[in-house]
Q: What sequence folds into this?
């Protein structure tokens, strides 16, 4: 017998899916009836085809199910009820709400701070109106396969740019470096950073003038000062036309006052601009092609292609320099800050952008942790509310109402957290700014900021609320109320995964922080080759001090608070000035730069360096003016056998005899390998280094030193730095990363533990009855504690196992950039793990022990 | 102002429901229209019209028996309500008025 034909199943199902439930049964009946009729009249195939057509034609408004079956009569009221309910639920579970809100608030606050910081970094140098056309001219030197790229330029290269490329380059400005100068108006003396700049610069930077004109620098005797400096010197009056004494050597007229440039620009620290053509600007005296002394900024004409022009001007300096290959290139000024590092093949490679990424990632992770907390706690708590859902549904709530209620609750929580976060950010911004070296403020009036913040908060609220909203609201009331419903093991699986993610991130951050601090400490403890303790350095900024050094020295020694003092070109913490020298047997093609330091004969004694071979300079030997001392590294490079002592080297046109070899000293960034250095006795002196008498308290000593400096150098304030501070300055970047990542790691673990605390208390609460029964049956507190803590401890162990390879990989990578570095040790990982484990146990045990101490009578009696 | 809204197809459906009296449900209405007016009626069009008429209150329905050929799905029988009757009368009278208003000469069409 042929089976009775059936209507096409797929189409019938499709129809059932879309059809309005109220109409479904009748229409389905009609469809089937007609189908059977057609089968007998026209055959099964045609009937089926007709059926499909009917189903498709029925898909039209009126038949298709409406999106919502209910009609809301009072939408505003529902909204109000939801808010009230959300508020009540928040208050009901005060502890949870506190954990939830504070955890999320900390997360949002961290993300916000980092977000502000990242924005600040990314908009570096975008302040200038023509920022897209401002280019830094950079120099590239290649020698023996290695390329050095830098912003220091020989002023000569600007010549051809001004003449031959006038149609493509609108303006050219040579700019000096930000250097401390003394500006004085009568008795008011200030040390401020300023630059020598060509008259075109203010126009290129589109300085906003408060008084005077941008063109003021055309006159070699007028200067521009920023508003805050004008305020400090003159108050609110217009200072244009007044005279300022500069470095006690000349007087300049103030030609204009400009609005301070934002901190996140290349000239953020510059407080005044000095006219380039002034006779005191030593850079104007530099005329050779191989003297790299200043920086060069150009503004391209509209529509000029940078890459093309950069290629055209590339070889301007090449022909003038015989010893190595030198080229120049144009690099966008706004990119220099973030993408300013170039590798040895001259290709752009990293820079500050790496920190932006690093902190951006950290911020995102901290926020992620906070969101995970929020989600875990809301879902865990919502399981307790399954009964509530059941009753609500029985009474007549429909799914949509439940969804909107749960969502409202979590969104209200998220926005409370945002409020707290905003307060936290506002309060912590000042200290964050100090830490990060920024001047960031909360952009209260910025629309984008608000859109991002509110959007994000809404998203968090919806995401965290989505699980209870969509999962719980789907429960069948019968099951829930009968008690056959079981949330089961599966429901807590995602929560466990999230906890593992949290702790993996936290432990990784902690290990990284520890390693960073170890590296910093390691470099701080690097043998310096001299004694930094009790050394202060005073810069020589006025001619008066340099000329009267002998008198100053005499008088200082007489006070008894000073053990010794000496002059040198740079402070011992920051040698510089690279020089090439010639020696016997040198490979003529090789270019090696030596630190070139001028010192007075007492310098070695003052800083307490160690003479390895030969002897130190001596005032008593006049011939020493043509003698040099080299360090061990330099001696190794020159490799003069049998001994470097007595050998003659050539520097410039002069010949010098090596009289001594001293121990290597860490004199620049302490991460670098040691560099060769040569010490001369004649030359320019920039610093006085003083060794204080260790028997005298520092404050007392300084109090006696200051008057002597003021007496011999009345035009400059007594300004000194401790050499170990100067040395520490060079660790600043790493110190900053260390401190910041330490704070963030701390917050991360705080947030994670907060979440764990909430979860464990939730678990303990849910198992009160079980614990009660176990106690009656004879379980000890240790048993119960073990029972309740085990789950979490296992999770932390898993996270730890994940975090080790992760952090080891990243830290190995990070450490690679330092030639002088620590080796990763297992103890670091073990200690971090132990610490986190202890913290976890403490967090979890509190709840576990509290639950197991409770009297079983209480928990079992209440129903 | 339109007092009663009744489209052309809706009117036909109402009339057919009247014709079928107690036997009016989806399939029978469809067949009746198809035979009497010899035009194809799709299930989609018919059921949308029925629903619209029910929503307007011109038709009311009650559930009937479930037969085997309908795989146990009940029939939905339709009845004209008082409001429905008035709507039909209104439509009819407006038609009449229009017919009567046509001057005789208008029908004297050549050819």
A:
């Amino acid at each position: 017998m042929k089976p009775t034909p059936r209507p096409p199943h797929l189409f019938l199902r499709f129809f059932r899916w879309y059809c309005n439930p109220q109409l479904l049964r009748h229409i389905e009946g009609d469809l089937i009836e007609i189908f059977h009729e057609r089968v007998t009249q026209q055959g099964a195939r045609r009937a089926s085809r007709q059926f499909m057509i009917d189903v498709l034609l029925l898909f039209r408004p009126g038949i298709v199910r409406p999106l919502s079956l209910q009609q809301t009569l009072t939408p505003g009221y529902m909204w109000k009820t939801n808010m009230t309910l959300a508020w009540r639920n928040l208050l009901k579970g005060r502890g949870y709400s506190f954990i939830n809100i504070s955890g999320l608030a900390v997360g949002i606050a961290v993300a916000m701070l980092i977000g502000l910081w990242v924005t600040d970094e990314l908009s570096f140098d975008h302040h200038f109106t023509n920022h897209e056309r401002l280019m830094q001219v950079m120099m590239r030197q290649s020698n023996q396969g290695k390329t050095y790229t830098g912003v220091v330029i020989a002023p000569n290269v600007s010549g051809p740019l001004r003449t031959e490329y006038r149609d493509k380059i609108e303006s050219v400005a040579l700019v000096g470096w930000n250097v401390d100068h003394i500006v004085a108006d009568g008795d008011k003396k200030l040390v401020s950073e300023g630059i020598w700049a060509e008259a075109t610069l203010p126009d290129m930077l589109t300085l906003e003038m408060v008084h005077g004109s941008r063109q003021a620098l055309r006159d070699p005797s007028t200067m521009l000062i920023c508003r805050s400096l004008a305020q400090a010197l003159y108050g609110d009056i217009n200072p244009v036309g007044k005279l300022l004494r500069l470095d006690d050597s000349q007087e300049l007229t103030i030609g204009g006052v400009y609005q301070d440039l934002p901190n996140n620009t290349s000239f953020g620290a510059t407080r005044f601009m000095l006219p380039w053509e002034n006779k005191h600007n030593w850079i104007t005296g530099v005329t050779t092609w191989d003297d790299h002394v200043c920086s060069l900024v150009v503004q391209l004409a509209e529509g000029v292609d940078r890459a093309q022009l950069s290629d055209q001007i590339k070889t301007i300096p090449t022909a003038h320099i015989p010893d190595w290959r030198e080229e120049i290139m144009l690099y966008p000024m706004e990119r220099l800050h973030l993408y300013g590092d170039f590798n040895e093949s001259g290709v752009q490679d990293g820079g500050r952008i790496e920190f932006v990424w690093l902190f951006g990632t950290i911020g995102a992770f901290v926020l992620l942790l906070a969101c995970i907390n929020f989600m875990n706690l809301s879902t865990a708590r919502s399981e307790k509310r399954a009964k509530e859902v059941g009753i609500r549904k029985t009474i007549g709530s429909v799914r949509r109402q439940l969804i909107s209620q749960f969502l409202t609750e979590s969104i209200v929580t998220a926005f409370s957290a945002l409020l707290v976060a905003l307060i936290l950010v506002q309060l912590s911004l000042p200290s964050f700014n100090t830490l990060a070296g920024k001047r960031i403020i909360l952009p209260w009036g910025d629309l984008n900021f608000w859109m991002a913040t509110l959007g994000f908060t809404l998203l968090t609220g919806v995401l965290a609320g989505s699980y209870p909203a969509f999962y719980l609201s789907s429960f069948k009331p019968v099951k829930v109320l009968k008690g056959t419903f079981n949330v089961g093991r599966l429901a807590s699986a995602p929560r466990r995964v999230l906890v593992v993610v949290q702790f993996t991130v936290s432990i990784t951050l902690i290990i990284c922080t520890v390693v960073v601090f170890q590296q910093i400490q390691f470099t701080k403890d690097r043998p310096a080759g001299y004694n930094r303790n009790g050394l202060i350095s005073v810069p020589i900024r006025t001619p008066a001090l340099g000329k009267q050094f002998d008198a100053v020295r005499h008088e200082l020694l007489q006070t008894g608070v000073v053990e010794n003092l000496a002059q040198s070109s740079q402070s011992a913490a920051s040698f510089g000035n690279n020089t090439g020298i010639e020696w016997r047997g040198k490979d003529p093609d090789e270019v090696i730069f030596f630190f070139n330091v001028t010192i007075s004969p007492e310098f070695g004694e003052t800083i307490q360096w160690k003479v390895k071979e030969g002897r130190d300079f001596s005032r008593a030997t006049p011939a020493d003016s043509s003698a040099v001392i080299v360090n061990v590294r330099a001696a190794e490079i020159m490799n003069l056998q049998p001994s470097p002592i007595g050998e003659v080297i050539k520097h410039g046109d002069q010949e010098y005899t090596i009289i001594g070899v001293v121990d290597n000293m860490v004199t620049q960034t302490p991460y670098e390998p040691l560099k060769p250095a040569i010490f001369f006795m004649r030359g320019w002196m920039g610093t006085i280094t003083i060794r204080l008498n260790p028997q005298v308290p520092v404050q007392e000593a300084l109090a006696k030193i200051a008057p002597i400096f003021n007496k011999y150098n009345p035009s400059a304030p007594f300004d000194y730095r401790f050499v170990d501070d100067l040395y520490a300055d060079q660790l600043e970047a790493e110190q900053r990363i260390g401190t910041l990542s330490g704070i963030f790691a701390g917050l991360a673990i705080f947030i994670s533990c907060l979440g764990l605390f909430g979860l464990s208390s939730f678990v303990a609460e849910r198992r009160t009855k079980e614990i009660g029964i176990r106690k009656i049956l004879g379980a000890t507190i240790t048993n119960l504690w073990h029972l309740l803590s085990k789950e979490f401890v296992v999770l932390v162990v898993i996270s730890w196992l994940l975090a080790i390879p992760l952090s080891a990989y990243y830290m190995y990578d990070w450490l690679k950039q330092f030639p002088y570095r620590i080796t990763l040790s297992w103890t670091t990982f073990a200690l971090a793990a132990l610490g986190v484990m202890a913290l976890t146990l403490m967090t979890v045990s509190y709840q576990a022990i509290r639950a197991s101490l409770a009297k079983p009578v209480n928990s079992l009696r209440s129903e | 102002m339109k007092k009663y809204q009744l489209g052309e197809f809706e009117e036909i459906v109402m009339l057919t429901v009247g014709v079928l009296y107690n036997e009016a449900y989806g399939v029978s209405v469809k067949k009746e229209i198809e035979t009497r007016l010899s035009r194809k009626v799709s299930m989609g069009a018919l059921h949308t019209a029925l629903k619209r008429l029910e929503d307007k209150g011109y038709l009311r329905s009650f559930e009937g028996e479930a037969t085997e050929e309908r795989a146990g799905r009940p029939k939905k029988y339709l009845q004209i309500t008082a409001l429905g009757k008035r709507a039909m009368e209104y439509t009819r009278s407006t038609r009449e008025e229009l017919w009567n208003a046509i001057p005789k000469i208008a029908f004297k069409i050549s050819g």
